[in-house]
Design brief:
- The chain is of the alpha+beta class.
- The protein has two domains: about 1-25 and about 125-339, Immunoglobulin-like (Sandwich); about 35-115, Helix Hairpins, CATH 1.10.287.90.
- About 40% of the residues lie in helices and about 20% in strands.
- It contains eight helices and 13 strands.
- It has helices at about 1-20, 35-70, 85-115, 230-240, 250-260, 300-305, 310, 325-335; strands at about 25, 125-130, 135-140, 145-150, 150-155, 165-170, 175-180, 185-190, 195-200, 205-210, 220-230, 290, 295.
- The longest helix is centred in the first third of the chain and has 34 residues, at about 35-70.
- Bound molecules: dinuclear copper ion.
- The site of dinuclear copper ion has 9 residues, from loops.
Length: about 350
Amino acid sequence: MHLSSRSAAFLCATAVAAMAQTVHPIGNIFKPRATPADSVYNISLLMLAVCAAIFVVVAGLLTFAIIRFRRRNADHGREPAQVYGSTRIEIAWTVLPILIVVVLSMATARTVIEVQNKRLPADTLKVTVIGHQWWWEYRYPEFGIVTANELHVPVSTVAKPRVTALRLESADVAHSFWIPQLAGKTDLIPGITNTMWIDPRQDGIFLGNCAEYCGTQHANMLLRVVVESPADFDKWVSAQKQPAMTYPGLERGRATLLSLSCVNCHTVTGTSAAGTFGPDLTHLMSRTTLGSGMIPNTPENLRAWMKDPQQIKKGNLMPNMQLNARELDEVVNYLSSLK
Ligand code: CUA
């Protein structure tokens, strides 16, 4: 019940946000907005066309046989002439499917190789994506930025092409990174580093999901890619590079947070909180959602989350910190100032 009313509220909030920044609907591989997604789209059209032709031939023959050889009174219960063994028919229905499978396999292999072996330009933006149960960590090594759940990348235009290369790693179990409008899925496997790249040609927010079952909250491991103009992206980068500010009156809240075991899992740059187990909180309020896309990131929702994270996202690894009302107010006030 709670979740459905929350989801409804979130949909409204997303609709409001959509007025400010286009939110592209989730899951539509038929509206590709980046080169790797174009390749997936093209190969899917070929697959669909071949499958549609097979369907039409099989369904057509079946319909023909049903009508042509239906039981008639004139048959007097006798069966029509039966065919026992035909080398020509056997060869046809063995060779044709093999040819179809070979053609589709080769076309797929060519697409996979084209996407994987693409030479990326020297100015490619590099981001490390780390899958966690159940959130996404994004590291921008060249800028020293660490953030969570919302991947910011510059838009790629004809005048100024920009490619973003992703290094995919996992902190625990297998996950899969999938933004249908930008690229095919790639798994994040513990102990292995996979790579992929995107070059989104339209700005806005692109949505996706973790596409590999990874535990209780797999369905709530949502992906957001914020594609921005180069100027907006640079602005975001320079804001994210700043350490956390402490505004007057919030020192107490900061002290309370730093006195709790929150610091073992979370980082707030510029303070003694340097845990890396949970999402980096240095610029928490620059993100639009909490719990990896579950609820809008508002001070009220943040308070509800801090009060009992398990009630909002059951099974997530953040324990209930058992904060009293005063501590909750102080900590939430401080965290809400981390823009
Ligand atoms: Cu992560 Cu499913």
